[in-house]
Specification:
mainly alpha
C-alpha cells in the first residue's frame, strides 16, 4: 500500500503539480509579475475554461450516468457548503462574498485541472465515470450557483433580470448551457469544431495552474483559524462524508463508486481563486487554503488512488 502510494505520488501526481510549483517559484523570484498572472488567469477564465467545459458536456454520455451517486454527491455538497459558509459568517465573522468563496472551497475539488488528468494516467479512460459526473456537477450546479450568489451579493439583489444578466455576461455559464444542450440532445460536434476544442482545451489546465502558482506566490501566511477550518473540511471532512454516504447507500457498489471519493479529495479548484479575483473578493485566506490543500492532497490522493 505504501509502495503504491509513493509510486502514484512520484508519477503522475508530482509531474502535474509541477507546473503550479513552477509558477510559484517564478513569482517568488520576481520573474513573473502578479499583474501578468492575473491577465493569464483572465484568459483562462474567459476563454480556455469555457472551451473545456463545453467540450466535456457536449461529449458526455448522459444516458449512462447513474442517478443515485449523483444525488448523494449533490446532497453532501449542499450540507458541507452550508457548514462552511455558516462557520465563515457566524464563527469567524467573514464578509458574505468571501464566506461564499470559502464555503465553495470546501466542496469544489480541482478535478478538471488536477484530479482528472491524474486519474486518466492511473486508471485510463474506462473507469472515469464517477469523476466525470463530479466535473459535470461542479461545472453546472455548484459553479453556476456560486457565480449567481457572488453576483447577487455584488448587486445587492436576486431577480430574474440579475440572473439573466449573469448568464449573458459569463462565458463559462454560456458554455455550460451550450454544452448541456448539445450533450442532452445528442447533436454531436463537427470534426473541425472538435479539433478546435481538443487543441485549445488541452491548454486550460497548465495555463490555469501556472497562473495560479504565480498568484499564490504573493500569498502571506499566518495563523488563521478560518483557513485551518476550510482546509480540514476540504481535505478530510468532505471526502469522509462522501465516502460514508456512498458506502451507506450501496455497500455492494463501493468498488465501482470509490472514485467519487478520489474526486472529492483533490485540492481546492483553481476556479475558486479565479472567481475570487473576477468578483473582487479578498483572496488572502483563500490563497492559504489553496496552498495547504495542494500540499496535503499530494499525499491523500496518492493513498486513495
Amino acid at each position: 500500500m505504501i509502495h503504491t502510494a509513493l509510486d502514484v505520488l512520484a508519477d503522475p501526481i508530482l509531474p502535474v503539480f509541477a507546473i503550479l510549483a513552477l509558477g510559484y517559484g517564478l513569482g517568488r523570484a520576481g520573474w513573473m509579475a502578479l499583474d501578468e498572472a492575473r491577465l493569464i488567469n483572465r484568459f483562462a477564465v474567459t476563454i480556455l475554461i469555457p472551451i473545456i467545459l463545453f467540450d466535456l458536456l457536449a461529449n458526455a454520455p448522459f444516458e449512462t450516468y447513474p442517478l443515485a451517486p449523483f444525488l448523494i454527491y449533490v446532497g453532501v455538497q449542499g450540507v458541507i457548503f452550508a457548514i462552511g459558509y455558516l462557520l465563515a459568517r457566524r464563527v469567524f465573522g467573514i464578509a458574505p462574498g468571501e464566506a461564499v468563496i470559502l464555503g465553495y472551497a470546501g466542496i469544489f475539488a480541482n478535478n478538471v485541472f488536477y484530479a482528472l488528468p491524474i486519474a486518466v494516467l492511473i486508471y485510463g479512460d474506462s473507469e472515469l465515470l464517477p469523476i466525470t459526473i463530479i466535473v459535470i456537477l461542479d461545472s453546472t450546479v455548484s459553479l453556476a450557483g456560486t457565480m449567481i450568489a457572488l453576483q447577487a451579493i455584488e448587486k445587492g439583489q436576486v431577480s430574474a433580470k440579475v440572473i439573466f444578466d449573469i448568464f449573458a455576461r459569463t462565458p463559462a455559464l454560456l458554455a455550460i448551457l451550450a454544452g448541456l444542450a448539445v450533450g442532452f440532445l445528442d447533436l454531436g460536434v463537427p470534426e473541425p469544431v472538435q479539433t478546435f476544442l481538443d487543441f485549445n482545451g488541452s491548454a486550460a489546465a497548465p495555463v490555469a495552474l501556472f497562473a495560479l502558482g504565480v498568484v499564490l506566490s504573493d500569498a502571506r501566511f499566518g495563523p488563521d483559524p478560518a483557513v485551518a477550518a476550510v482546509v480540514a473540511i476540504k481535505i478530510f471532512v468532505f471526502p469522509a462524508a462522501i465516502a460514508l454516504a456512498i458506502w451507506s447507500a450501496d455497500p455492494a457498489g463501493w468498488s465501482a463508486n470509490r472514485l467519487f471519493v478520489f474526486g472529492s479529495a483533490g485540492p481546492v479548484g483553481a476556479v475558486a481563486f479565479s472567481l475570487a479575483i473576477f468578483y473582487n473578493v479578498p483572496t488572502d485566506r483563500l490563497a492559504q487554503v489553496l496552498v495547504w490543500t495542494f500540499l496535503l492532497s499530494l499525499f491523500t490522493l496518492a493513498v486513495l488512488a
